[in-house]
Amino acid sequence: MQASGDNRSIITNVLTPQFEYQLQFLDHEIGSYCTLESSSANGSCTAMYSSQDGHDLKCKLRQLESVMLEDTDSGEDAGNGVVELPEIGIWKEIMGFGKGGLREVLVACAKAVSDNDLCSVELLVSELRQLVSVAGDPIQRLGAYMLEGLVARLSYSGSTIYKSEYLVDTNVFYEICPYFKFGYMSANGAIAEAMKCEKRVHIVDLRIGQGSQWAPLIQAFARRPGGPPHIRITGFHDSPSGLRVVSKRLCKLAKAYNVPFEFNVEVGLEHFRAQPGESLAVNFAYVLHQMPDESVSTRNDRDRILRLVKSMKPKVVTLVEQESNTNTSPFYPRFLEALDYYNAMFESIDITLPREHKQRISVEQHCLARDVVNIIACEGDERVERHELLRKWKLRFSMAGFSPSPMSPVVNETIKRLLKNYSEKYTLKERDGALYLGWMNRDLVASCAWR
């Protein structure tokens, strides 16, 4: 059965763009190809069904065709240009992804992207746009950003999204979830334990940010029996002018607690030089995963930095990283890992920040979505979010010559008290001298120390 040219025009006008290719599909027998303007190089993609189901599928296609291509000159609606569209459920069943929830549709879309099955991608993206919402439940909100990442991957635009940083949102995220506090408290505890008898302490922070993480350590040193040590903190930044406010804030705090203090700015670790008589502590908090390794560049900054720090003979080195495996994984398993990891994180935000809170969307967009999009959309040196599990970090540190330095039980107890201010669904585990902060059954952040 064929529709007249006028009927086809009417149908095309009322169809949404993502379903226009269905008309082309209906003009062929089962087993043929459908054509998409945005499909692969040869302009075609294979239909997603097997010949053994041909009879049933042909019936469904004919049913769909009869609705879509019926003669509008003979019906009650003749003359008004209105054509009743077929239910999308028929197409979902034909294409094999009709009964799953949002998570299943996200996974199906990622698999289609991985397989370069652009016919399915177009249909699934259209479906996802109806299911996701930045104001919905955790999986809907995460799904919105994962969909953004999938679309950006197809258009090669992932590196242009979320370039700027929002310090206000970072501060809010710091308060509503314990992830940053856990990392900073565990690092501070390891440094305080290692430096409890030292008179001159030099702390090197590869990502100092606003520097607020060092205020509790300065206060703790001020109360140390026998008096505080002389503290020097070196902060690294692409632009030294960005650390002026941090320097003033920490110097003012140290003065208020009568702690001898200096703040130093560096733009490259290669130029760093410790002063005689100082005991050195180096802090890697949420920074190493953004350094490219051997899978990205022969320079391998990730291992090179560790060897360089080891040559400085530090008394303690602290590591805080997200417990996730997205570094060398191919796109599809990396997508699944990100889906599981960030779903737990979005769920945890729901506990402390109501969905209707005006800052929640901004926090998720500027503190989490940028990472999600980068993980999904980017490859090569454009992908900077390259997380590794702690067991892999342990191999890197061991190969660089470091030895584990187990966390003090005092640190463990301090963090347990911190978590009482949050949900009971947060978990704290200690394994092989390292601490793991998690949400329910999923480890999210790992912290450990080395010497």
Automatic annotation (TrEMBL):
Residues 170-235 are annotated as: VHIID. A motif (VHIID) lies at residues 201-205. Residues 377-451 are annotated as: SAW. Keywords: Transcription, Transcription regulation. Belongs to the GRAS family. This is Transcription factor GRAS.
